[in-house]
Amino acid sequence: MKTDTAPQESIDTLKTAELSTFVIDMFHRIIMHYAMWFREVEHQFGSEKAMTLLDDVLKRTYSIQMKRLSEVIGFTMEGDVPSAMLEMPREKLIALSEAVGKNWLANDGVWFQAVEGKYGMNDAKRCNDSCWAHFSPLEAWSIKRFLGLEENPGLEGLKRALRFRMYARINEQSITDEQENSFVFQMNNCRVQAARKRKGLDDYPCKSGGLVEYAFFAESIDPRIGTECIGCPPDDHPDDWFCAWRFYLK
User: Fold this and answer.
1) φ and ψ of 166, to 5 deg
2) Cβ contacts of residue 240 below 8 Å, gap of 6+?
3) Could you give the C-alpha distances from 14 to 5, 19, 72, in angstroms and in order?
4) Phi-psi map region of 74: left, alpha, beta (phi>0 left; psi -120 to 50 alpha)
5) From CA 6, how far away is CA 72, in angstroms rounded?
6) What is the domain partition of the chain in residue ranges?
7) Would you give the DSSP letter of residue 250?
8) How far apart, in whole angstroms, are the C-alpha atoms of residue 164 and residue 189?
9) Distance between CA 201 and CA 193 in Å, rounded?
């Protein structure tokens, strides 16, 4: 029997650049595994119970992971925040939040284009709209948790929450009170639509996704809140906004 005496490929045989790439890939696996756990728990127990469990998991896993990373990389923590971030100028932190928002949007676009390129526009829109049905409630939950909003914070709570969405870091938006029990939200400048406009392209028809995105977000902030679309591509719209939505207490 012939014995293979060649050195076996392992972590120890990787060059520095390869090892760095491997570690980055491990971070990606953590993110995907975390998301898969949440989706399965949601499937097994429903959204409400999954969110309750997520609150407990997030607190525990963040503490565990940051402690271990700080010990290996050599950074210090002040409470739940790396000291280096607390020492950054406010302008740098704001720029960082915008960069994260742009990365989030780019990630969304890459997924859309990948599905569209392989299966066509209809399937890409179907996946996109279904994704929003899951992401909007999660983002609402995250913002309510961050802001410490009460269970049913009403329209004022929704106004606060809209200012902390991912989109709020990269788009221009405005809120106008309409009546005592309603207000209008406008997306005055949309990064995606503005880019298409510069290229001479028609608006991307995002209304089907918007109907899911905004309604699910508002109801997750407060189930008493209803959503009405004033206009969203492919609808015609004025130059000062791309889409507009009315939120009201049912």
Assistant:
1) -60, -40
2) 186, 188
3) 18, 6, 19
4) left
5) 32
6) 54-87, 126-250
7) -
8) 16
9) 9
Look up tokens 């990787």; give the residue: 14
pTM of this prediction?
0.91
Output the six-digit token pair for 94. 């704001």
162 touches 168 (CB < 8 A): yes
Tell me how far apart the alpha carbons of residues 26 and 53 are, in angstroms, rounded to a whole number.
Answer: 24
d(C-alpha 167, C-alpha 196), whole Å? 17
pLDDT in tens, 228-246: 999 999 999 999 999 999 9
Place of tokens 């302008």: 91
Question: Phi/psi class of residue 235: alpha, beta or left (left: φ > 0; alpha: ψ in -120 to 50)?
Answer: beta
Distance CA 209, CA 192 (A): 14
Percent of the chain with pLDDT over 90: 94
Q: Coil, strand, or helix at residue 150?
A: coil
Instruction: Map residue 186 onto helix, strand or coil.
Output: strand
What burial letters (b/e) apply to 18-50, b meaning 16+ CB within 10 Å?
A: eeeeeeeeeeeeeeeeeeeebeebbeeeebeeb
Distance CA 134, CA 16 (A): 39
Supply the pLDDT for residue 5.
58
Query: Which fold does the domain 126-250 belong to in CATH?
Result: Muramoyl-pentapeptide Carboxypeptidase; domain 2 (3.30.1380)
AA letter at 92: K
d(CA 41, CA 31): 16
